[in-house]
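worker-3 :: picked C1QL
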Amino acid sequence: MAVCVLRLLFAASFVLVVLGNSVDTKLFSKIKHIEKILEFQGYEIFELKSTVKSQKGEIVRLHNVITKLQTLYTGRKLVNTGDDKVTNQSKEFLRKPKVSKGNHKTDLPVEDKARASRLLNANIPVQSSSVAFYVQLTIPEKNIGQHHPIVFDRIITNVGNCYNKHTGVFTASQNGIYAITFTLFPDRNSYFGVNIFKNSEIVSQIFTDHRGPSFCGTTPISVITLNTGDTVFVRTSSNYVVYGNIFADEHIRSSFAGWKIADI
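worker-3 :: tokens ->
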């Protein structure tokens, strides 16, 4: 009988120990899980704080920019006067007449006169050019060599009728300052030097190369003075290697353009 009682007590104790260990294990797992969640949330909170700090700095910077722009806008605010717009400062200047007393003349300070002059001249339109041309190459130039003139055959714009599509030459009809440019697309595996000529003088030179995998084009620009009768044209170099073709199709076309900027 005593032996049975002892066995029952031992079994009960074993069950309690096993259950206790199981409960401890589950609690430990839950605690570790909660710790991981808290650690992850800590990282998120840190990142959010960093973002907020960065945004605060950006807000301050943008506020300063807006303040400066508002100040500039207020200083340059335009007042409508019929069809014209005159700034407040220039309008005030116009309301202040010169006062003459005998040989003595009261006038505005030099600084105010200069400022008013700038304001009054700000809205004067620039006179448009009376000479301009823009032409394209629609037919590929095959096996070009050195000293080869490039004739752009399609005329898009020819104000003043100064470009000849049969020769590829632009002839100035007026003295002036001109902008001259072209864009050239070499065919695959082609490479060559190309120049802009003013009469017999080279005014711009480039080297374009399409031996690589990417399609390419080259565009120089020159600003030159021309007298009536001066000629401008595009020709391949006489000094550098010239090999291959100039590419042209309905989607990609080389071009040549020029326009008068100002009188001289």
